[in-house]
Structures are given as C-alpha cells and as structure tokens.
Amino acid sequence: MTEATSALQLPGPVPTPGREMPTEVADEREYIERITRETPRDTRGEEAFIASKVNLAQTHPRLDRAERELARTELTERIGRSRLEDALAKEKDQPVPGGVGYGPFYNSAFKSGFAQGTSIYFEIVCPTSPGGNVNTWLYLTGMNRAGRGIEAFVSYYAQTQPHFKVFDWARTDQWQTDIPFGSLGSYLSTTSAHGSSYQILGVWNTTTQISSGQWRNDALLYNRTAGRWDLFYRYDYAGTLAQQTGGWIGSWGPIVETFQSPYVNTNRFGALNTMLISRNSSGAWGSWQLLSAANSYIRTDNVGFFVVFLDSNYAFVVDS
Amino acid sequence: MVSGPEPPVPSNDPSPESGKRVPTRDMREEFARISAGVGHDPEAERAFVESKIEMIRSHPTLSEAEKTAAIAELEEKLKGET
Known about the structure:
The complex is a heterodimer. By secondary structure, chain A is an alpha+beta fold. Chain A folds into two domains: 43-92; 99-319, no CATH class. Chain A has helices spanning 29-38, 43-59, 65-79, 81-92, 108-111, 241-245; strands spanning 99-106, 117-125, 137-141, 150-157, 163-168, 175-180, 188-193, 196-211, 214-223, 228-238, 255-258, 269-279, 289-290, 296-299, 306-311, 315-319. In chain A, the strands form two sheets. In chain A, strands 2, 7, 8, 9, 10, 12, 13, 15 and 16 form a nine-stranded antiparallel β-sheet that branches. A seven-stranded antiparallel β-sheet of chain A has the order 6-5-4-3-11-1-14. The longest helix of chain A is centred in the first third of the chain and has 17 residues, at 43-59. The two termini of chain A are 50 Å apart. By secondary structure, chain B is mainly alpha-helical. Chain B is built from four helices and one strand; from the N terminus they run αβααα. In chain B, helix 3 runs antiparallel to helix 4 (64-77). Chain B is extended. The relative contact order of chain B is 0.08. The interface between A and B is large, with 69 and 54 residues. Strand 10 of chain A pairs parallel with strand 1 of chain B, so a sheet runs across the interface.
C-alpha cells in the first residue's frame, strides 16, 4: 500500500483519545475503491445486514412497542419496502438457536452451593399455544443447579401442541419423558400474578446423593386435581459432588430458551414461585428459599420479549 | 430410605392451611407409557443440543476459556447421545 500524503482538509479536530495521534493524513480513496471493486459482492451478507437492522429495532431493550414500530417504519422508508421484505424473507430461513429470551442464571457461588443435594420448584407459565410468530422450537426450561440433574421442560414447536419433556444430563440416553399437553390436564391449572391469570405447570425436581458415590434424579409434578405430588421420573447413577457442582450445565434457572429472532405478538411465558433448597454435607436439607437477585442474574438476549413483570428473581412473565 | 426435602408449597395449594402434608403418588409407569407412545423426533433432539452450545457461545459474561470448557463439558456429557 502506498502512502500518499496530502494536505487534506479535515472536517474537524483530530481525535485524541488519551494518546498522541498522527497529524499527517493520507488519501487512500483510490486504493480502497480498487480493493472494493475487486471484492466479490456478498448479496447474502447485505440482506442479512438489512434484516439485522430490523431485528435490532424490534429487540431493542429500551424501546417500547410504539418506538419499535416507529423504528421499523423509518427503516422501511429508508431502505425500501420490497428490499426490506426480501431481506427479511431470506433471513427467516436461518435458524437462530441458543438464545435466552429471558430468565435467571445462577451466580457461580450459588450454583455450587450445595453438598449432598439440591432441589428446585417452579411454576412454568405455559399457554397452550405460543401464539405470535413462533415457527420453530421454544423451551420453557430450568435446572436445579446440579450438573447431572435434569431439565423438565415445556417444549413448543411452532403452533402445534406443546409437550412436556425430560432431558436427563446424567444419562447417555438423555431423552426420557415426553407428554403432550393433552395428557397433562390434571397438572395444568391457573393462578394469578400481578393482576393477570396464567396457566401454570408446577415442576419439582431434585438431585440428591443416595449413598457414597451414588446420586438420584427425581422429578415430580403437582397434581392440582388430586392435590398431591406425582413422581413421574427417577434415575439413579454413579457420580461425584464435583460433577454436580462444577461446570456450566445446571447454571440456568427458569428461562425462556429461544430459536428465532425477533419474537412478535407471542403469548405470555415465564415462571412463578421459583424456590430452591440445598442439602448440606451432613445430609440435612435447609429450607425452601425464593430465588433472589443475590444468587442469580437475569440474562436476556433481546430477541423481542417485553418484561410484563419481574419479582427479582423468583417470578417473571414476558411477552412480545 | 433417603429422605427428600420437605415438599415445596405450590401457589394456591390449600394444604398448608389444613396442616396436612401433600401426599405423593408414583406415576412413573403411567408417564413412561404415554412417553413411549410419542414418536421419536431426532430433529428436535439435535436442536436441543445445538441450542445449548449456542447458549454458551453467546453467553455475555463467560470468557473464551470458560466457553471452551463449557462446550467441552457439554460434548463430554453428550457422548452417548445419538
């Protein structure tokens, strides 16, 4: 690259972010233009860029609904409706897995803060239909901190009937329970929170040491019709405390796990009454404690959800 | 017999007022029977795993080293997964 210095007129003072800046200015416009011409045009990348801007507007955490709509209108005007829609149509085919729509993750000290057992109870706010533009998977899941614990979760796929599933991190054949919502009538109920009524599923799962080097995963659902706990899953296995308390698996509390972006006009999802309890090294269980902001933090990847309410951090509801 | 924790108290549950402990019933056979009747969905199972890996990659506070360790942990635990 040739250094072509010239007496260019600069638009203003040279920025000096805490260090001396060169005062000479090189005119490299021709060089850059040549390189640009020689570089194959990436129309896919250009479309993704446009679609991303729409996504940015629609998922911006500080914009309310009206402001997001205004931003979308502005983008449509500036980019052109057909070009924008083309870009969005192509982007729609690209899955966006692994997002966290909203929900708490455990702080590292709390994640490892048990000795012979840990247990979680939470009420999954789970409408029978996800609504809105959900066109792939969406999970309402959570773990009890144990790295070899389970995920007992609600799985949506597009607008089809949701399923309640168990994925057991202690097994090699991890996929276990799979129950369509149509078979969960005794377990689904409604409760109110912050003035609204929500369909919920009360899930309680426990990981506990049953003898030296032996652990057990239990999962129960609260049967509202019968007023009892129904044990629906149990698995015993060999393991160590380090396997349970270490690592990343088990670090999420009740979360909305997402696979697309942005979400628009969905029903409300969330979790209520999230409580955890620990068993110490003497084998004694403590008492149930609501999940607090002192032992967890909220993660949101800004995929379009609005917070309807958050009771830090044991209860939240989001929609889009 | 391993003692579990005291059962949590679900919202709207009447038992604390009556002072009775909520009973527990073993429904494993029933749930296993229903689950066995639901078709296996390999695509959904693959999506579940890929999602977890992406959750690590996009985690806002994990360092690169922590992400690498977390993905390795995940892959180790999923060795038996088909």
